[in-house]
Amino acid sequence: MGHRADGTDLRRFETYTRASFLFVFLATHGAAALTLAPTWRTDALHVAALLGLGAHLVASIVHSTRALAEAPRSRRTETAYGVFTLVVTGLLAAVADPEAWRETGAGAYSPIALVLGAGLATLGLTLRWRHLVTAGAVAVAVLAAAFLARGVGVAAVLGLVVLAVLILVLLAPLGPLTWWMLDVVRTLARSRTTHARLAVAEERLRFSRDLHDVYGRTLSAIALKSELAAELARRGDERAVGEMTAVRDLAQSSLVDARRLVAGYRDIDPATELAGSRSVLRSAGARLTETGVDDALARLDDRGRTAAAWVLREASTNVLRHSAASSVHVSARIVGDRVELSIVNDGADPRGADRPGSGTGLLGLSERLREVGGALSTSSGEGRFTLVATLPLCSRVVPGPDADAPSDRQDAAEGAAAAHADAHDQGTLP
Fold first, then answer.
1. Where are the beta strands (DSSP E) in 348-421?
2. What is the Cα gyration radius of the chain?
3. 259 falls within a domain
4. CA 370 vs CA 26, 304, 333, 356: distances in Å
């Protein structure tokens, strides 16, 4: 049976818990009222006992409702309720018929002990175990003293004490155990909510990473070509028209990529990326050469080729943004069951701006490679910057260190989907 992540299960359990306590209160106080009925008189003591019993029923419902709703604790309120429970128990014992003991035994007074047990169960929602045991011992002592004051024999009182202890052992733990179960359910509900929020955050990070990968090189190329076109236009060079046409084509291609990204179609082709990188780098005054790229990348599966295409895109983006390279060499070779893709440029930034950790591009690329079982490494020296990506011939999905169970993944996905739908409704996503 499935569980809903919108809090419905928690509300149902809380409703069930309140209904259970209400049933206990009505049963115990109703039994006590029936015990008083055969010997009912209209004197002040009987009226006080009956009114006290009704007031205790209301107080028990109110106190338990506040406790189950996690209202702030009040020692004064707890003490007042505990004392009131003892007073009502004493009044019930004071009006009980001593002859009933001789006729039916200790069972005649069991409803009084039930009222006492219901009161301790209510206190157990907020009291610690040791305080609850102390309160139970005091309550049994008060009950025994009340019956001894009525002239009931010691042996009969001892029997009643044994019966009261048995009832308290059954009822008093109801409060702490109920609170423990309710706390567990609430913790689970909060964890499910947190898990869904983390899934939404992870999806946003993934989307931002993809936006960076899609637009990083394109916008850099547009800026470069626009600057070149402006310079050519100032010189009256007709090549400015061609550069601006290229800017238009890049903008249209970027729009297509954005639509595919939003729709979830993020597969790109290494050959297309390599051709695009060659064109962009040529505009920036850099020459791109390659060795064995087509043959090696052709051995990869679809996921591996997509990852390799992202490597080529990010590498060319870094060259445009962070270096003054005049040449870029791309090579690929098969090493065992893996393909090693290497991109070297001769314009390494001496400030280390193109190293992992200095931006989000290489970090996102490293995460993308790990998802298919690959790895990313970089090095620089003697004015050169080298990026090496290793990809398995047969890519595999590598779970993170906190991989979730299928059901948790489904709940998290539902939370992420809900957040994505909200964003769409609010107009923040196309």
1. 375-381, 384-392
2. 39
3. yes
4. 62, 11, 19, 15
Q: How many domains does the chain have?
A: 2
Q: pLDDT value at position 376?
A: 92
Same domain for 347 and 215? yes
Rounded distance between C-alpha atoms, residue 206 and residue 371, angstroms = 12
Query: What is the arrangement of strands in the sheet containing 287-291, beginning at the earlier edge strand?
Result: 287-291, 327-335, 338-345, 384-392, 375-381
pLDDT tens-digit readout, 178-219: 878 888 888 887 887 777 677 667 767 766 777 777 677 778
Residues 127, 18 share a domain: yes
Instruction: Determine the angle formed by the axes of helices 174-235 and 406-425, rounding to 10 degrees.
Output: 50
Cα distances (Å, whole numbers) of residue 300 to 152, 223, 287, 388: 93, 33, 26, 16
Q: At what angle do helices 129-149 and 174-235 cross, to 10 degrees?
A: 150
Instruction: State the pLDDT at residue 417.
Output: 41
216/76 same-domain check: no
- Reading the block at residue 255, the tokens are 């729009």
Q: Which of 283, 286, 287, 309 is nearest to 222 (CA)?
A: 283
Q: Are residues 227 and 328 in the same domain?
A: yes
Q: How confident is the model at residue 256, as a pLDDT?
A: 77
Q: How far apart are CA 275 and CA 313, in angstroms?
A: 10
233 and 109, same domain (yes or no): no
Question: Is 421 inside any structural domain?
Answer: no
Q: Are residues 50 and 128 in the same domain?
A: yes
Give the position of tokens 């249209």: 252
pLDDT band for position 360 (cuts 50, 70, 90): low
Write phi, then psi, for 341 (nearest 5 degrees): -105, 120
pLDDT at 329: 93
User: What counts of helices (H) and strands (E) characterise the chain?
Assistant: 14, 5
Q: What is the mean pLDDT of residues 146-152?
A: 71
Task: Indicate whether 244 and 366 sit together in one domain.
Answer: yes
Domain that holds residue 280: 203-401
Region 338-354: what's the mean pLDDT? 77
Instruction: Pick 366 or 395 by higher pLDDT.
Output: 366
Does 187 fall in a domain?
no
Q: What angle do CA 159, 165, 168 make, to 5 degrees?
A: 140
Q: Which domain CATH number covers 393?
A: 3.30.565.10
The pLDDT of residue 66: 82
319 within a domain of the structure (yes/no): yes
